[in-house]
Amino acid sequence: DAVNAGKKAAAIRVVDELVKTDQVLGIGSGSTIVFAVEHIAERVKSEGLKLTCVPTSFQARQLILEHGLTLGDLENFPKLDLAIDGADEVDSELNCIKGGGGCLAQEKVVASCAKKFAVIADDRKDSSHLGQNWHKGIPIEVLPFAYVPVMQKIKTTYGGVPALRMAQSKAGPVVTDNGNFLLDWKFDAEKKWDWNLINTELNLIPGVVDTGLFIHMAFKAYFGTSQGSVSTRT
Ligand code: DER
């Protein structure tokens, strides 16, 4: 459908433009990255590319294995050439909200280990400011035993509504690949936020593992449209 056409177009473009043989790649999580892994596998098959792929979640690990790509890890490959991942929203300065799929913690580590971090998305994610199109709030991974004091601290300090993310096909809260809980903080998108400062302050709250604010991390974003065209932002 239209949204998948955009995701696929962005995914193919980033792989054709940035993936080269002998690279160590960070593989993100979510639905857009699936198209990228499919295209990487096609290029490995047709061009004999030599690649090592480091996952950002159980889902990414399964994707890599299912497509016969070489699995790597940060113990053996602490420095990556390129990380590719999706996003829930990207603003005019390439700041991202990520974590809609609950994988933000490993995604941020892997992105931080890569020389270059590229974001791929359909054009619904292309915003001028965070909160313009993404209304589910900023995902924040927290230690399970601390989620109430962390929620209270966020609410009193920044306002808005932080909520524990409840699972759909499991009773109780979503549990991340790291065994933690997730808060989704619905913030006032009309306010002007210094997201770099907010990300730093949120990460200083005891019990916070990491946030879905990827600030000053992406070097380029690829937005695919339903007609299959791709626009980029650097
Ligand atoms: O959870 C995540 O950070 C994912 O990358 C998510 O933000 C993008 O998922 P999508 O490609 O399914 O939109």
From TrEMBL:
Pathway: Carbohydrate degradation; pentose phosphate pathway; D-ribose 5-phosphate from D-ribulose 5-phosphate (non-oxidative stage): step 1/1
InterPro entries noted in UniProt: NagB/RpiA_transferase-like, Ribose5P_isomerase_typA_subgr, Ribose5P_isomerase_type_A
Enzyme Commission numbers on file: 5.3.1.6
Catalyzed reactions: aldehydo-D-ribose 5-phosphate = D-ribulose 5-phosphate
A cellular component term, taken from the record's GO annotations: cytoplasm
GO molecular function: ribose-5-phosphate isomerase activity
Protein name: ribose-5-phosphate isomerase
